[in-house]
Amino acid sequence: MAAGALTQKNYLHYAVGLDYGIGSLKLSAQFIQKYIMDYNDFIYGEEFGNTMTFLASYDDNSMIYTKIKYNFQV
Question: Which of the two residues, 72 and 36, has the higher pLDDT score?
Answer without folding.
Answer: 36
